[in-house]
Amino acid sequence: MKLLISTLAAGAFALMPFGSFAQSDGLVLYCSADEHWCKAMSDAFQRETGIMVQMTRKSSGETFAKIKAEQGKPRGDIWWGGGGDSHLQAAEEGLTEEYRSPMLNELQSWAVRQAETSQFRSVGIYAGVLGFGYNSTLIDDPAPDCWADLLEERFRGQIQVGNPNSSGTAYTMLATLVQLFGEDEAFAFMATLDRNVSTYTHSGSAPIRSAAKGDTAVGIAFVHDAAAQGALGAPIVSVAPCEGTGYEVGSMSIIAGAPNPKNARIWYDWALSAPAQELGATANSFQVPSNLNAPYPDQAPDLVEITLIDYDFARFGSSKERTRLLQRWETEIRSLSR
Predict the structure, then answer these.
(1) Which residues touch 33 (CB under 8 Å, ≥6 apart)?
(2) Left if phi > 0, otherwise alpha if psi is -120 to 50, otherwise beta: which for 157?
(3) Closest listed residue to residue 13, CA positions, set 268, 254, 253
């Protein structure tokens, strides 16, 4: 059974008269999901509420840095999407505000745990499994099935992965490998992997897009991003590594001191509703939705069938641990490619 999806019909929240909330001061949205999904969400929210949205799309790391740089004089109202680790760090550093949405009782347990861990300064909006995708026209048998396979000589210069300083996907990989293998062993693995990495991209989704175009053979990415490229017709095969893997809880947070706090809360509640979460699949984003009543996309990874680690979100989302690991990555891994 796929992640305890509720059989209940969509809640009455879908019938709320969002148009009655129309505001003239608008909403500034920082979005760290796929750009097409960001736009679909923005357009639907504007139609349903009359609140105009100014949307900026950046990766999780870039958005975190932007919010931190604007601390005290924030320009954004809401941060939607991107890895929960970054949202937890933002919560710890006081960059986001506490909000307990009335929608919490409709959410998956992992989404509520994200809220509790952040002291209700964030909440889970989707889940995604880390893995990789490969271009089947560029890979000879045997097909890669495990993390260890990516160290083989045949993949020399044929792998792309994000830079964990800017990419939430890549930070999830870093934290996953540490939890899966142990820290020193994980850094030894990444040092060996570096010989096969052609590019560390700013965006976590860029590697799988490059694989889809045939510019690289393998892109380390979330499984749903690989599935999205397959849905578009690319010869991409998605893999959840055999040793086990981590996952993200994509999250949402209200920025501390937001210029339009009322509109930010309206977005927050709306984005947690089942109808809003259905929009992901229409934009070829196949994450597992956090609302129990939202349909489970056919292309979404089945969390029951995949070997998942017991990901420690509190530890790896803390400012101290993230900063320490990223500094070690810069010193020991990034320096190898300079």
Answers:
(1) 80, 81, 82, 250, 285
(2) left
(3) 268
Q: What is the pLDDT of residue 3?
A: 36
Note the pLDDT tens digit of each residue in 222-231: 999 999 999 9
Lowest mean pLDDT, pick from 13-27, 144-158, 176-190: 13-27
Domains of the chain: 12-127+248-303 (3.40.190.10), 129-246+318-337 (3.40.190.10)
Name the burial class of residue 334, with classes exposed (0-12), middle (13-18) and buried (19+) by CB atoms within 10 angstroms of its CB.
Answer: middle
Task: Please report, rounded to a whole number, the percentage of residues in the chain having pLDDT higher than 90.
Answer: 87
Residue 310 CB burial class (10 angstroms; 0-12, 13-18, ≥19): exposed
Residue found under tokens 């307990």: 100
pTM: 0.85
Residue 302, helix vs strand vs coil: coil
Instruction: Render pLDDT for 187-198 as a digit per residue (tens, 0 to 9).
Output: 999 999 999 999
Cα–chain-centroid distance for residue 148?
A: 24
Residues 6+ apart with CB under 8 A from 324: none
Q: How much is the CA Rg of the chain, to the nearest whole Å?
A: 19
- pLDDT higher than threshold 80 for residue 312: yes
Cis ω for the linkage preceding 164 (within 30 of 0): no
List CB contacts of 138: < 8 A, sequence separation 6 or more: 158, 214, 217
Q: And the tokens for 133? A: 């995708």
Rounded average pLDDT over 24-53: 95
Q: Could you give the angle at the alpha carbon of 60 between the alpha carbons of 171 and 179, nearest 5°?
A: 20
Q: What does the pLDDT read at residue 338? A: 62
Give the ranges where 70-167 is alpha helix by DSSP (H): 84-92, 109-117
Are 168 and 221 spatial neighbours (Cβ–Cβ below 8 Å)?
no
